[in-house]
Amino acid sequence: MTVLIAGAGIAGLSLGLTLYQIGVPFRIYEATAVLRPMGVGINLQPNAVRELLDMGLEAELDRIGVRTRQLGFYSKLGKTIWEEPRGIWAGYAWPQYSVHRGALQMMLYEALIARAGADCVVTGVRVTGFETGPEGAILILSDGRRVEGRLLIAADGIHSALRAQMYPDEGEPIWNGRVLWRATTRAPAYFGGGAMAMIGHDDLRLVSYPISDPDSDGMVEMNWIAEKRFPLDAAWKKEDWNRAADIGDFLPDFADWRFDWIDVPALIKGAEVVYEYPMVDRDPLPRWTDGSVTLMGDAAHPTYPVGSNGASQAILDARIIGARLLEHGITPRTLEAYEADVRPVTTAVGQANRAGGGPDGVLQRVEDLCGGDFDDIDTVIPHADLAAHAARYKSIAGFSIDELNARPRTIAEGARIPA
Questions:
Q1: In terms of Cα–Cα distance, which of 191, 189, 194 is closest to 89?
Q2: I need a labelling partner for 105 at 20 to 30 A (CA). Which of 58, 78, 150, 370 fits?
Q3: Positive or negative, the Cα torsion across 378, 379, 384, 389?
C-alpha cells in the first residue's frame, strides 16, 4: 500500500512529511545523488506556513527564515504606490516567511529523515515513466527498475517526466519574453527589515526582500530579482537554476535606480554570483490524474513567480492529498478528489499571473498612467482601488485574511489513516 513520490523538492518532501504524519507508507525517488541547497529566495504565504506549523516545523522556519512584515510597490522613480502589512502584522493567525529556497528544501529533507528514516528517500535515480492499472502504479526508473506502489505522485518539477508521458505533445515550457537575474547580496536593511519591495514596471523591474534579520550593523542577506523584457525571438530560452550570468547584460538598465532607501546598482554589484533564467510557465492542463497517478507542484501547475505563491501551493498540494487520503484511503478516488479541489484554483492563479492580475499589476498601471512620476498616488489610482486589487489576488490564491483564519485545519490534529 506504499505511495510512491517522484522528486524530493519542496512538493515531494512536504508530501513525505504529510504521509508520515498520517501513517501512510511512502518512498521518494530523487534524481540528484546528493541534495544541496539550490536556488535563492522565495516567500511562504500564511496559508502554507499554517500547514508547516501543523507539521511541527515552526522552530525550524524561524531558524532559516524571516517573518515578513510588509510588501510595497514602488515606481521606477522610487515613489510609493502601495504598501501593506503582511503575515501576522496584517491580521493573519500565521506569519509569512521569506527564506532561501535551498535552506527550506534542506530543512524539509532533514526533518523527514529524522522522523521517517534515511531509507524513505532514494537519491541518484531518475524517473522516466509510469504504468497504471487496477492494482496500482509502477514507477519506471532510468536504471531499468520498476517499483510498484498503490499510488504514484509526480512531484518532479516543470520538466516532469511523468507529465511528459501523460502529455507527450506538450513541448517545452512557454517563455513570456522576460529574463530574470537572481542573487543575494549583503546589504543595508530598509524599512526596518522584513520588508518586500517591488519596483518598476512590466519591461524592467526589481524585487527585493531580506532572508535574514538585520545584524548589529543593520545589514541583511538581501534576496533580489532583476527582470527585463526582451523580444520573444531573443535567444534566452534555456532554464537552468545554475546558469551564472554577466551583470553587464542588465546592470546599465538600473544605473539610475538609487533612492533614499535602496541603492539598486550597489545591490547588483554586491552579489558574489548571479543566476539567470527566463520566466516560463506551462498552459493549464485539462486533467492531472491518470488512474493511480497524479501530478502536484510545478509538475502540475507551474506559474510565473509574480505572486509569491509557487512554493506555498506545492505545500498546500501535499496537505490536500493527505486530507483526501484520510477521507478515501489509498485509492485513486483520493487523487480525483485532490485534483477537483486544487486544479481550478491553480488554473485561476496561473491565468491571473499571465494577465497581469497578480499583485504587481499595479506597477504597469502606474507606468501607463503617469510614467511613475506623481506627488500623490491617490490622484493616479484611488487608494480603494489599490486595496481592492491586493485583496482580489489573495482571494484567488486562497489566502484572504478572514477566510484563512476561519478555515478549519486541512488535517485534523492526530488524524491517522486506519491500519
A1: 194
A2: 150
A3: negative
Between 4-8, 15-19, 73-77, 226-230, the lowest mean confidence (pLDDT) is in 226-230
For residue 231, the model assigns a pLDDT of: 85
Buried b (16+ CB within 10 A) or exposed e, 358-392: bbbbbbebbbeebebebeebeebbeeeebeebeee
Closest CA to 17 of 359, 248, 314, 342: 314
Rounded Cα distance, 9 and 374, in Å: 44
Q: Which three cell numbers stand for residue 332?
A: 485513486
Give CA separation, 161 vs 102, 127, 300, 303, in Å: 22, 7, 12, 18
Question: Do residues 206 and 227 lie in contact, with contact meaning Cβ atoms separated by under 8 Å?
Answer: yes
Half-sphere exposure of 189 (CA within 13 A, CB side): 20
List pLDDT tens digits, range 142-168: 999 999 999 999 999 999 999 999 999
Instruction: Name the strand (E) or helix (H) holding 314.
Output: helix 310-328
Say what the pLDDT of residue 270 is. 97
Backbone angles phi, psi at 103, to 5 degrees: -65, -40
**Chain-wide mean pLDDT for the chain?**
93
Distant-in-sequence, close-in-space partners of 177: CB < 8 Å, separation ≥ 6: 229, 230, 231, 232, 234
184 sits in which H/E element: strand 174-188
b/e code 202-211 from CB counts within 10 Å (16+ = b): bebbbbbbbb
Residue type at 63? Answer: R
Q: Which residues are registered as beta bridge partners of 278?
A: 179
DSSP class of residue 378 equals: G
In angstroms, rounded to a whole number, what is the distance separating the alpha carbons of residues 203 and 262? 20
Task: Classify each residue of 302-336 as buried b or exposed e, where b means 16 or more C-beta atoms within 10 Å of its C-beta.
Answer: bbbbbbbbbbbbbbbbbbbbbbbbbebebbbebbb
